[in-house]
Design a protein that fits this description.
- 31% of the residues lie in helices and 18% in strands.
- The chain has 723 residues and is of the alpha/beta class.
- It has three domains: 332 residues, Glycoside hydrolase, family 3, N-terminal domain (TIM Barrel); 200 residues, Rossmann fold; 116 residues, Immunoglobulins (Immunoglobulin-like, Sandwich), CATH 2.60.40.10.
- The mean pLDDT is 97.
- The chain binds 1-deoxynojirimycin.
């Protein structure tokens, strides 16, 4: 349909039909009406309103979607199709590793491929829009939703955000019906709730917001993402859903976003408990004024906009522009011509959870699993006698909290993965305890008995999937005590222990890390459908681990938030003697994280040498070339993530101690070496100044290249930027 035809369509709509377009309801209102009859009356909904709501959340399956759309269109006076949206966060039925794990892969091509497959499975199952990517920058592992983010760094997050959008949307959403539209969320700064408590206040300066938190969203929008979702939190005291500065001035005017802005679930009505609206009518007015086009799952628009318009409390054109944006999205999705779009029962059967998709999920998990500690015990030899112990041993709860359509019974457990390598008589298995409850005396005795008989213990620990994700903040980020108790009993046996972890956040694993009995720690995150195969491939050495953390692991919760790029202080610890008192440090732990951003081991080793820069005086018209030689000094092939950081030594505003500006994931054969080249130009030196302008400072810059953000191991040089 052409733009002018959309205008004609808008002109034909009654006011009520327009307001109905702004409503999004969940699946139950369409496919299980009996179950929601009570709520329907309470919500002030009529059947007619349901029949005319513009979008729906959470219906999928080609047959259901086709039937729902058919029924809907039969009743819709102007034949305006419904959009089907859902949370496909890291896979539809083929579940990929959680986004925090994909972040650890530092592999944008892989991230794009996971999104492409997610889109394909979703689209043939009838979906049109996914509420992904979630690009909230995160620094506090107490917050359960860190699992949905790609981590603590603005640059890496932005690269991955773009990759996800490309994978979901492809290059032509109208023609390519096997892609879906991407919805970037949660705008803005949802990842920074005070004290890591879900839905809590966010407090930061506009400068900080622009420098660290906004680049991820902006990158996704520059890549063409069609929708944005509002965050639940406040931004400078005003809930995002009612924040005119954020949504009108910044998102629409400054960034020219003309796509659909959708509220998060219930966020319009929540303006009342937030205390910025006295009732639902005021909430509706505030949200519409802020530019929220779709109200998800509450009825403030539906029940109150008509009155507000009648009373002249809100301008009619605000409703019109919101409706037009929704019609535009329907048009971009090609729904007027083909309301069923990619929904195809046959394709769905062929493609969803196909072997090829499972293989991609396994590869993604293999690139996302981080080796945190290794005395040399890994990879394991297949003739060793292994005791596989712990709640994660045979667990299929490895998909993660955001795997709505994922079926955990279809997932491969660690035990199943290992059985492909280790003969039955050499692989003994005992749970020992549950994730949160202690094992019985017999269960513990069984675990100790098999441990006694083994050469090596694989201790599979972690969280349940519902211990991270939405509404899953934890104040204590240790492993549950029952698991630590089991560890303590096993450790007395003096056998080498390989700890594997299934979890959704950086945990406090200091005790395991410091224990000499723990010979290795492997962070597998929630690795998705093929998790057990991927983890076994790593443990047994078929795959050389190559992932590096995209979010730091703290020493303990008292150190949180700890991230690699804090601003420098006036009393830095670096360069002072250990006994100096009045410096910025802890008395009991180091300032740096236990396992910092960018850290991850391999079964081979890499050396870095010969850091060279093309000039020591850089001007605005030039590009600085940075060369470094990286060599695989071990005897097996391996992948390395080479990282480039800079530091602006003297800025107008205090600058972070380092900032990631580039990375390359390379593969080197044993003994192979390669010269890696990065480039930097003025743009990479720019940052948000006091007056909020994005510009550079002249003066000295440090250049650091190495295997992680930790100072040890980084090669350093410097140049001067002159104007
Ligand atoms: C609430 C979550 O915050 C959001 O991420 C999700 O997309 C919506 N619910 C819809 O399920």
């Amino acid at each position: 349909m052409r733009a002018v035809e959309l205008q004609d369509l808008l002109a034909k709509m009654t006011r009520q039909e327009k307001i109905n377009q702004l409503l999004q309801l969940a699946a139950g209102f369409y496919i299980d009406l009996d179950a929601v009859t009570g709520p329907i009356e309470e919500m002030g909904l009529t059947e007619e309103m349901i029949d005319n709501a513009g979008t729906v959340l959470g219906i999928s399956g080609a047959a259901d979607v086709i039937q729902t759309q058919k029924k809907y269109l039969a009743k819709n006076r102007l034949g305006i199709p419904l959009i089907f949206m859902a949370d496909v966060i890291h896979g539809y039925k083929t579940i990929f590793p959680i986004p925090l794990a994909l972040g650890s892969s530092w592999n944008t091509a892989l991230a794009e491929e996971t999104a492409r497959i997610s889109a394909l499975e979703s689209a043939v199952s009838g979906l049109h829009v996914t509420f992904s990517p979630m690009v909230d920058l995160v620094r506090d592992p107490r917050w359960g939703r860190v699992m949905e983010s790609t981590g603590e760094d603005a640059f890496l997050n932005a690269e991955l955000a773009k990759a996800f959008v490309r994978g979901y949307q492809g290059t032509d959403l109208t023609l390519d019906v096997e892609r879906v539209a991407a919805c970037v969320k949660h705008f803005a700064a949802y990842g920074a709730p005070v004290a890591g408590r879900e839905y809590n206040t966010v407090n930061m300066s506009e400068r900080q917001l622009r420098e660290a938190y906004l680049p991820g969203y902006q990158a996704a929008l520059n890549e063409g993402a069609k929708l944005v979702m509002t965050a639940f939190n406040t931004v400078d005291g005003v809930p995002a859903t009612a924040n005119q500065w954020l949504m009108r001035d910044l998102l629409r005017k400054e960034w020219n976003f003309d796509g659909v802005l959708i509220s998060d679930w219930g966020a319009v009505k929540e303006l009342v408990p937030h205390g910025v609206a006295s009732d639902e009518k005021e909430a509706a007015i505030l949200a519409l004024k802020a530019g929220v086009d779709i109200e998800m799952m509450t009825m403030c628009y539906l029940n109150h906009l008509e009155d507000a318009l009648e009373a002249g409390e809100i301008a009619e054109n605000l409703v019109d522009e919101a409706v037009l944006r929704i019609l535009n999205l329907k048009n971009d999705l090609g729904l007027f011509e083909n309301p069923y779009r990619g929904a195809d029962v046959q394709r769905e059967q062929e493609l969803v959870l196909s072997d090829a998709h499972r293989e991609s999920a396994r590869k993604a998990a293999e690139e996302s699993i981080v080796l945190l500690k290794n005395s040399g015990i890994l990879p394991l030899a297949s003739q060793q006698k292994i005791a596989l112990i712990g709640p994660g041993a045979e667990s299929k709860d490895i998909l993660g909290a955001w795997s709505w359509q994922g079926e955990s019974e279809k997932a491969i457990s660690l035990a199943e993965g290992l059985r492909k390598y280790v003969p039955v008589e050499q692989l003994m298995i005992a749970k020992g305890c549950e994730v949160l409850t202690a094992g019985s005396q017999t269960e513990v005795a069984e675990a100790l008995e098999i441990a006694e008989a083994a050469d090596v213990i694989i201790l599979a620990l972690g969280e349940n999937s519902d211990m991270s994700g939405e509404a899953a903040s934890r104040s204590d980020i240790h492993l549950p005590q029952v698991q630590l108790d089991l560890f303590k009993q096993l450790k007395k046996l003096g056998k080498p222990i390989v700890v594997t972890l299934f979890n959704g956040r950086p945990l406090d694993i200091s005790e395991l890390s410091q224990s000499t009995e723990v010979a290795a720690i492997v962070e597998a995150w929630f690795p998705g459908t093929e998790g057990g195969n991927a983890l076994a491939n790593i443990l047994m050495g078929a795959i050389n681990p190559s992932a590096k953390l995209s979010m730091s692991f703290p020493y303990n919760v008292g150190q949180v938030p700890v991230y690699y790029n804090p601003d420098n202080t006036g009393r830095p610890e670096v360069g002072r003697s250990a006994d100096e008192k009045y410096v910025s440090k802890y008395l009991d732990i180091p300032n740096e994280a236990l396992y910092p951003f960018g850290f991850g081991l391999s079964y081979t080793s890499f050396s870095y040498s010969d850091l060279q820069i093309s000039t020591t005086k850089l001007t605005p018209s030039e590009t600085l070339k940075i060369h470094v030689t990286v060599k695989n000094t071990g005897n097996i092939i391996g992948k390395e993530i080479v990282q480039l950081y800079i530091r602006d030594v003297v800025g107008e505003v205090v600058r972070p101690v380092k900032e990631l500006k580039g990375y390359q994931k390379i593969e080197l054969a044993a003994n192979e070496e390669q010269v890696i080249t990065f480039t930097l130009s003025e743009n990479e030196l720019c940052y948000v100044h006091q007056d909020l302008s994005f510009k550079s400072d002249t003066g000295e810059f440090h250049v650091m290249v190495g295997p992680s953000s930790h100072d040890d191991g980084l090669l350093k040089t410097s140049f001067t930027f002159i104007n």
